[in-house]
Specification:
The complex is a heterodimer of chains A (about 110) and B (about 120). Chain A contains no helices and eleven strands. By secondary structure, chain A is mainly β. Classes of the chains: A mainly beta (about 110), B mainly beta (about 120).
């Protein structure tokens, strides 16, 4: 199974900050990497596919990059509604696996 | 709009079974696989497997293989996930999601997700 490791596990930031979350795969997954956002008590929401492609309707302050084993999710100009937990997920092979999540909290 | 609506919360004793439903609307049901993902309290997301409503083909995670059965009813656009021999560590919110695949865009993603079904296993 491909292991996905996110860092940090949590971070504190202020509105307007730029935030970067890293996701590392245990083997190369090309660009087969997706990102999701989850708010407390809610289902995950799909944000980015194939490492860098923004889902329709997702604000442009979200961006993704990377390939191979190292990926990043960047949120520029952090907004109040962005405080949530973010998960990466590889779509290279089964079983599909997720990172452990990164909780973005208000400083 | 594309929507997945799941059945309500369930409480089961250890050793029992549970069957969760996921009703799809707003798209052609047989054109997209349905996946199931669970989340234990305070924990991350765990993929359980998926099913093709088109031909019934399934792919289960090894962790639940032998205890899980995923099915679909194309007449009602509903997917089901049955988990047997329940244990306390099966307590979780169970989500269904549509699997979207685009040519040249990786192996697919999960969108949208159902609202989740809490399954509590307790004696």
């Amino acid at each position: 199974d491909i292991q996905m490791t996110q860092s940090p596990s949590s971070l504190s930031a202020s509105v307007g900050d730029r935030v970067t979350i890293t996701c590392r795969a245990s083997q190369s997954i090309s660009s087969h990497l997706n990102w999701y956002q989850q708010k407390p008590g809610k289902a995950p929401k799909f944000l980015i596919y194939a490492a860098s492609n923004l889902q329709s309707g997702v604000p442009s302050r979200f961006s993704g990059s990377g390939s191979g084993t190292d990926f990043t999710l960047t949120i520029s100009n952090l907004q109040p509604e962005d405080f949530a937990t973010y998960y990466c997920q590889q779509s290279y092979s089964t079983p599909r696996t997720f990172g452990q999540g990164t909780k973005v909290e208000i400083k | 709009q594309v929507q997945l609506v799941q059945s309500g919360a369930e409480v089961r004793e250890p050793g029992a079974s549970v069957k969760v439903s996921c009703k799809a609307s707003g798209y052609t049901f047989i054109s997209y696989d349905i996946t199931w993902v669970r989340q234990a309290p305070g924990q991350g997301l765990e993929w359980m497997g998926w099913i093709s409503p088109y031909n019934g083909n399934t792919n289960y995670a090894q962790k639940v293989q032998g205890r899980v059965t995923m099915t679909t009813d194309t007449s009602t656009s509903t997917a089901y996930m049955e988990l047997r021999s329940l244990r306390s560590d099966d307590t979780a919110v169970y989500y269904c999601a549509r699997v979207v695949v685009a040519v040249g865009a990786g192996g697919g993603w999960f969108d949208p997700w159902g609202q989740g079904t809490l399954v509590t296993v307790s004696s």
